């Protein structure tokens, strides 16, 4: 239970520690968040605003309600309506969008200088371009239009430097070259005045008030490129399986989107109606031609009849002739109609069998009296499906599902039509045989009439048949025109595209700010995590405790003084207090030493620069200031440093004594610090290890222990040379110095292993250069006098400069 509690506490401490580590980077978070929000602000302003508008249509079969299936000319014109999926393909097809672009002249760009770029101002300019599409225009050239008066403007631009300029003629979509010997063009024009040159042909039409000084740009761009850019219209079902479609389009200019969506629906509606009445229009045109011929024939027969009556002085048929006329006229009309319709069926069958696609060239009936309305229905369906398939082939391959479905439907309609033709041919031939048999019985009766009356009867019969055809065609022409005009579209507009003040869909300012805020947090976190993963430095006492067996004696703060005499120069500073704490804690290391016996303290570190010399000087100082006779011995013979802090030279020292040049008394130096003597290392010898291992060194240490209460030995770094290990035998206590944010975690592995193997005893770590304001901890109170932050105020001489926020805070506190 106790172990579980300790683990929980340790886990909580770790979480708290990591939180404070992250929190210590608040300046970095603040800067990155500000930068990210500034970038988001810039992106919101710089990125062109994209708007999305839509229109809703319904695609449903609608037949003309004015005519029944029995009305010959109606033919049930529309047939089956197109599948919704086919409409989707049509709306994104190249052919369809070419019609929309051409109708709207979308290949003309209207631009105005914006904050970051030329902005599309289509629909917002006080003029529109009236373009002569049959003549060439400068291609892709920015033409500046500057308003100079209420009804005047100045047109200007620069020709290409090489003299060759491209021209485009939109009616033929042909690009040509124009060579100019001028470098620029500038001329003033009036509204509606034709700009008529060899490279520009248009006029401007005013649609709102001119503001003098305003500048706009117009540009004539690629027709095919404009079509391609506008084929990205989105077509989706409102609900699954329904005939309701939503057309959506994105762009930077809402006026362009509205016009394009509404026009694309208008073109679709128009094309659908054209497909539905394509065969009907072809039939009506043929009726008009045939009607004219029959009308001329009727006038000619009427004239011939009058001449015959006057010439033969016969004006009326006899009673017997009238009876024969009435009996044969209906049979002759029916026979004539069947013969003509059989000819039409032969032509239709030949055309259907020899063609794969069917359009306006499908034969129309010589007389419109079609016996079976299914013939007309199948022809209308065949033409409609075939025309739609040809349009789709411009956008998709023959393997596309829409093409495959249409091809199957065309094949079915074609087979049904051929079967109906064959059936009608058999029926018509039987009728013809019966009619010929009936008419032959009347021919014998006709021969009994006088010759002049036979001639009159023939003229009367021809006139009657022609007049009947004339009246019939006149009626059918009227019906056909009415049916075409009253055609009902399959496309119904439910909701037109309209600018209702829609907000842009991109960029979304709130979203960009949120992303900026997240990135402003994520990037520093990523940096901190990466730094933590790659970091191998010692930062806190906990890092030492968690990785090594040797205990931590205490921590020493950052020395802000000009030299290493921190305790002597500033005895009330927090750093001085931390050394006093070390003096108290080190008693535990001296517990095996007699109280009255001299005590020797050895100081070492892993590498140079960890502050071992600074620790040794100040430890010697605190012992001396406590009234103990102390000597500080510099045994770092390779890189001596102590002399500089005492303003001495390193000419004489331990080396001179070890080589028997100087006596011990001659190398001992009295310092300005009471009770503290100093022995410098002296000149750097060629063999420092051998000097420290000889018998003279051993006698020197023993002599010093007899003279002084405390002997403080500053040794070389144990991680670099073996000298320090050899000097451990003299130490009653050993301090191993580790520097915060400098010493690496693996450096102490060797000395820690020796401690575990009991090769080294009475050793402790001291964490040097420790700062509460570092990013890896918050004090913990190590050193009993350093590390309590604001709670130590008033007890120490704080050598740290106050921060800006601290100074501001103190002002408010005073007030």
Automatic annotation (TrEMBL):
Claim: Transmembrane is one of the keywords in the record: yes
Residue span(s) of domain Tyrosine-protein kinase G-rich: 451-532
The AAA domain, residue ranges: 602-752
Protein EC: 2.7.10.2
Gene Ontology terms: cellular component: plasma membrane
InterPro entries assigned: AAA_dom, Bact_polysacc_biosynth/exp, GNVR, P-loop_NTPase, Wzc-like_C
Record key words, sorted: ATP-binding, Kinase, Membrane, Nucleotide-binding, Transferase, Transmembrane, Transmembrane helix, Tyrosine-protein kinase
CDD domains found in the cross-reference section: BY-kinase
Similarity comment: Belongs to the CpsD/CapB family. Belongs to the etk/wzc family.
SUPFAM superfamilies per UniProt: P-loop containing nucleoside triphosphate hydrolases
Top-rank lineage group of the source organism: Bacteria
Gene Ontology MF: a single term: non-membrane spanning protein tyrosine kinase activity
Claim: Translocase is one of the keywords in the record: no
Signal sequence residues: none
Lineage of the species this protein comes from: Bacteria, Pseudomonadati, Bacteroidota, Flavobacteriia, Flavobacteriales
Transmembrane segments annotated in the record for this chain: 25-43
Protein name in UniProt: non-specific protein-tyrosine kinase
Protein source organism: Polaribacter atrinae
Catalytically driven reaction(s): L-tyrosyl-[protein] + ATP = O-phospho-L-tyrosyl-[protein] + ADP + H(+)
């Amino acid at each position: 239970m106790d172990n579980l509690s300790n683990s929980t506490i340790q886990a909580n401490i770790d979480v708290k520690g990591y939180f404070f580590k992250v929190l210590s980077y608040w300046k970095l978070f603040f800067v990155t968040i500000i930068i990210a929000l500034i970038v988001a602000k810039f992106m919101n302003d710089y990125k062109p605003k994209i708007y999305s508008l839509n229109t809703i249509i319904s695609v449903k079969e609608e037949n003309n309600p004015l005519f029944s299936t029995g009305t010959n000319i109606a033919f049930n014109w529309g047939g089956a309506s197109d599948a919704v999926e086919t409409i989707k393909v049509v709306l994104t097809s190249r052919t369809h969008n070419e019609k929309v672009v051409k109708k709207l002249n979308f290949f003309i760009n209207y631009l105005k200088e914006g904050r970051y770029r030329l902005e599309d101002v289509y629909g917002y300019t006080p003029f529109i371009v009236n373009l002569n599409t049959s003549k060439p225009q400068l291609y892709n050239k920015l033409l500046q239009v500057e308003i100079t008066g209420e009804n005047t403007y100045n047109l200007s631009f620069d020709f290409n430097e090489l003299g060759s300029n491209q021209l485009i003629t939109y009616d033929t979509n042909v690009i040509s070259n124009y060579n100019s010997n001028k470098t620029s063009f500038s001329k003033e024009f009036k509204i509606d005045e034709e700009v008529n040159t060899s490279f520009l042909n248009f006029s401007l039409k005013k649609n709102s008030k001119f503001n003098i000084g305003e500048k706009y740009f117009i540009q004539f761009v690629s027709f095919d490129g404009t079509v391609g850019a506008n084929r990205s219209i989105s077509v989706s079902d409102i609900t699954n399986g329904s005939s309701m479609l939503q057309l959506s389009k994105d762009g930077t200019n809402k006026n362009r989107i509205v016009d394009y969506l509404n026009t694309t629906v208008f073109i679709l509606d128009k094309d659908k109606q054209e497909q539905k009445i394509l065969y009907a229009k072809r039939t009506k045109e043929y009726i008009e031609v045939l009607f004219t011929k029959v009308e001329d024939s009727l006038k000619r027969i009427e004239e011939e009849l009058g001449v015959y009556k006057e010439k033969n002085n016969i004006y009326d048929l006899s009673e017997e002739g009238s009876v024969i006329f009435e009996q044969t006229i209906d049979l002759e009309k029916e026979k004539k109609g069947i013969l003509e319709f059989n000819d039409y069926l032969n032509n239709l069958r030949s055309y259907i069998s020899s063609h794969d696609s069917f359009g306006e060239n499908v034969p129309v009936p010589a007389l419109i009296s079609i016996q079976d309305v299914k013939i007309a229905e199948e022809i209308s369906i065949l033409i409609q499906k075939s025309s739609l398939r040809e349009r789709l082939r411009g956008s998709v391959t023959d393997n596309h599902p829409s093409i495959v479905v249409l091809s199957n439907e065309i094949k079915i309609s074609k087979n049904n039509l051929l079967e109906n033709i064959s059936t009608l041919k058999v029926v018509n031939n039987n009728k013809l045989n019966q009619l010929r048999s009936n008419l032959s019985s009347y021919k014998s009766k006709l021969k009994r009439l006088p010759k002049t009356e036979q001639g009159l009867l023939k003229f009367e019969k021809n006139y009657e048949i022609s007049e009947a055809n004339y009246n019939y065609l006149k009626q059918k022409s009227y019906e056909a025109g009415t049916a075409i005009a009253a055609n009902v579209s399959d496309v119904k507009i439910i909701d037109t595209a309209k600018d209702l003040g829609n907000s842009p869909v991109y960029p979304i300012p709130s979203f960009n700010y949120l992303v900026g805020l997240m990135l402003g947090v994520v990037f520093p976190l990523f940096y901190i995590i990466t730094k933590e993963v790659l970091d191998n430095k010692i930062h806190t006492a906990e890092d030492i405790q968690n990785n090594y067996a040797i205990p931590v004696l205490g921590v020493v703060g950052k020395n802000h003084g000009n030299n290493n005499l921190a305790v002597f120069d500033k005895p009330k500073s927090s750093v001085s207090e931390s050394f006093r704490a070390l003096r108290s804690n080190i008693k535990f290391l001296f517990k095996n030493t007699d109280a009255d016996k001299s005590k020797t303290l050895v100081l070492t570190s892993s590498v140079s620069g960890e502050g071992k010399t600074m620790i040794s000087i100040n430890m010697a100082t605190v012992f001396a200031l406590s009234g103990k006779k102390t000597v500080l011995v510099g045994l770092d013979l390779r890189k001596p440093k102590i002399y500089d802090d005492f303003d001495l030279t390193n000419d004489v020292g331990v080396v001179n004594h070890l080589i028997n040049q100087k006596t011990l008394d001659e190398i001992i130096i009295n310092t300005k610090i009471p009770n503290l003597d100093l022995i410098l290392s002296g000149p750097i010898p060629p063999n420092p290890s051998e000097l420290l291992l000889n018998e003279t060194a051993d006698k020197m240490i023993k002599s010093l222990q007899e003279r002084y209460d405390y002997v403080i030995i500053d040794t070389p770094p144990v991680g670099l040379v073996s000298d320090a290990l050899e000097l451990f035998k003299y130490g009653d206590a050993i301090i191993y110095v580790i520097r915060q944010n400098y010493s690496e975690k693996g450096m102490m592995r060797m000395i820690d292993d020796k401690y575990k193997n009991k090769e080294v005893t009475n050793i402790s770590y001291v964490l040097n250069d420790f700062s509460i304001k570092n990013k890896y901890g918050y004090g913990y109170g190590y050193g009993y006098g350093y590390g309590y932050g604001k709670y130590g105020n008033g007890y120490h001489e704080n050598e740290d400069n106050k921060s800006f926020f601290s100074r501001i805070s103190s002002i408010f506190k005073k007030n």
